[in-house]
Fold this sequence. Notes:
Number of strands: 0
Structural class: mainly alpha
Strand content: under 5%
Radius of gyration: 19 Å
Oligomer: single chain
Largest sheet: none
Distance between the termini: 38 Å
Number of helices: 11
Shape: globular
Order of helices and strands: HHHHHHHHHHH
Amino acid sequence: xxxxxxxxxxxxxxxxxxxxxxxxxxxxxxxxxxxxxxxxxxxxxxxxxxxxxxxxxxxxxxxxxxxxxxxxxxxxxxxxxxxxxxxxxxxxxxxxxxxxxxxxxxxxxxxxxxxxxxxxxxxxxxxxxxxxxxxxxxxxxxxxxxxxxxxxxxxxxxxxxxxxxxxxxxxxxxxxxxxxxxxxxxxxxxxxxxxxxxxxxxxxxxxxxxxxxxxxxxxxxx
Length: 222
């Protein structure tokens, strides 16, 4: 019902008839002010709706698709707000969104495990002979860490691809991509603990993260 509400709300927004709901009204203002593409908003809703059944991703491609349709779509909208129409920026946004989706899945694994749910790609788990129960009992076996390594490596690869467009992406787009700083921070931390996804240090905040964000912004990098 909640997803259906937002689908109808987005339709009404693009008919200049938003419901009297604070978020909907502000979204309508943003759509009018920046001429936002309806498709990206609908993709976010559709993908969230698909994931309401709490099933694990069948393969890494499904996890990447989730990141593309949610996180990347949000980045495409952010680029539109910044007034940027650039193919290289779109390619970078696609890879950053996929990396964000993968890292979010990894970071949430201990939380989901505490509720007896595992969302990591099944094909990677099968490849290393790991069951959902291994994650539920917080196993630190090498094959469990190998699953985490494979998934994290895919996120790192997407970050690398996104940054390969650095010289071609308009500088004006860089603020939209600063989330790469937080993504890289998590990937470095998980590497330091040998891909033990349940290591307590991964749940601690990095007090220096705001400084890292400032430095990357000042250096005009992402």
